[in-house]
Design a protein that fits this description.
By secondary structure, this protein is mostly helical. Helices cover 70% and strands 0% of the residues. The chain starts with 21 loop residues before the first helix and ends with a helix.
């Protein structure tokens, strides 16, 4: 919420603002009457707080109401601009609540991206387990028959296609696929 210093009303005796309609208060606010803002606050704050609590918790709802009144003061007081007051206030409260929800989502997103575990990533135990599994796989790969080991290395590590493997081993393409499949199956059996 944007901190704004609300102006204090002058202490000259106001006309009975509590009895005025919203349209009358909006006209007085547009003419620069600070007492009108006080009357608007007293009249609409409870309903605005209840409305804001639909979006955010009670403390943020209070902030949203104050933010809406501060924006109303900045936009309308002494401007000569008269608006339909109640919808204006509710729209300001809604916008303040949505802005706070966006900021909270951005804070949560930033917090999650900083913590890899919270973001669904791996923690140090996962990394150690993955590294141990990788070392076991590489040790087992060394135990494969030479032709299977070479075929698997060319396919998985070098990214060669089956047509290239077939040419390299002077096989058909289907036989190259079978060779790689046998190498993978044997490797899985050794690691498991």
């Amino acid at each position: 919420m944007t901190p704004v210093q609300l102006s204090r009303p002058s202490f000259s005796a106001p006309v009975r603002l509590a009895d005025m309609s919203d349209a009358g208060l909006a006209r007085r606010l547009a003419d620069g009457d600070a007492w009108a803002l006080d009357a608007i606050y007293r009249r609409h704050a409870p309903a605005l707080r209840r409305y804001a609590r639909r979006y955010v918790d009670a403390a943020l709802a209070e902030d949203a109401v104050h933010d809406a009144l501060a924006r109303t003061q900045l936009a309308l007081m002494g401007s000569g601009r008269v608006v339909d007051l109640r919808p204006w206030l509710f729209r300001c409260v809604r916008n303040a609540c949505l802005s706070e929800l966006d900021r909270a989502a951005n804070r949560r997103g930033a917090e999650l991206s900083d913590d890899p575990v919270a973001a669904g990533g791996a923690d140090c135990c996962d990394v150690v387990a993955r590294n141990e599994h990788l070392h076991a796989t590489l040790r087992s790969m060394a135990a494969l028959p030479p032709r299977q080991r070479e075929a698997l290395a060319l396919r998985a590590l070098d990214g060669r296609g089956y047509d290239e493997l077939a040419e390299h081993f002077t096989l058909t393409e289907n036989a190259a696929v079978q060779l790689v499949h046998r190498a993978r199956r044997n490797l899985v059996a050794m690691v498991a």
